[in-house]
Design brief:
mainly alpha; 221 residues; 76% helix
Length: 221
């Protein structure tokens, strides 16, 4: 093979490598498949529903305390026979009711008074107990309402912070994906360019070595 043919082949190879390198620079970044972009979900931008306030929870309202009006009216047994019984028998026995009542009061007066005192104390205790239980339950209900209100407010703040953090995380992840895509594209482009340059340099060095060998042979002869 003559030196002119070698030069022509080397020139053709160089032109081919230059065209391949140019094509890799122009087409590879555009034709390279890209990673899909992160689609922002509408649910990621919407806050969680707020908790109901304690004032709005009327379905679980506490029942009212039991009525004590009849108990407060019947505790005084000393007035049991003050009024005449209804009917004909009451009218017939009306004249003797007064002496009989005075006789019973004289005989059982201390017992009746003690029973009245006992009933009065019992009714007073029952009223105070019911009032204490009502006030205690009201305080407990207000306390739990305050706790639930503070808990609901705190949960709303936590949800808001989580939403902000989620949006920031999505933004950073999206930016990181774009950076990784750019690095991959740049690395692939640089790899093709370096490979083409190395291939071209290798061919040039091979041609140079062949020329040096060809020049050194006549001197040895």
């Amino acid at each position: 093979m003559s030196s002119a043919e070698d030069d022509r082949q080397q020139a053709d190879l160089k032109r081919t490598m230059r065209s391949v390198r140019a094509a890799s620079r122009e087409k590879t970044p555009d034709e390279r498949p890209k990673l899909p972009r992160y689609e922002n979900d509408a649910r990621a931008r919407s806050a969680l529903p707020k908790l109901g306030s304690p004032a709005s929870r009327e379905a679980d309202a506490a029942p009212s305390s039991p009525g004590r009006q009849e108990l407060n009216e019947l505790w005084d047994v000393s007035t049991a026979y003050r009024d005449a019984p209804p009917g004909l028998m009451g009218r017939l026995l009306g004249p003797v009711r007064g002496p009989v009542r005075r006789l019973v009061r004289f005989a059982l007066g201390p017992v009746i008074e003690r029973q009245v005192q006992m009933n009065s104390a019992q009714v007073r205790f029952d009223n105070e107990m019911v009032q204490y239980v009502d006030e205690r339950l009201d305080r407990v209900s207000r306390h739990y309402d305050d706790i639930l209100g503070q808990h609901g407010k705190r949960m709303e703040e936590i949800d808001e912070r989580h939403l902000i953090l989620q949006q920031e995380l999505v933004r950073h992840v999206h930016d990181l994906v774009e950076r990784i895509e750019f690095v991959f594209e740049t690395a692939e482009t640089n790899h093709l360019q370096v490979e083409a340059v190395l291939r071209e340099t290798r061919e040039e060095l091979r041609a140079l070595v062949e020329k040096l060998d060809a020049l050194s042979r006549p001197g040895q002869d």
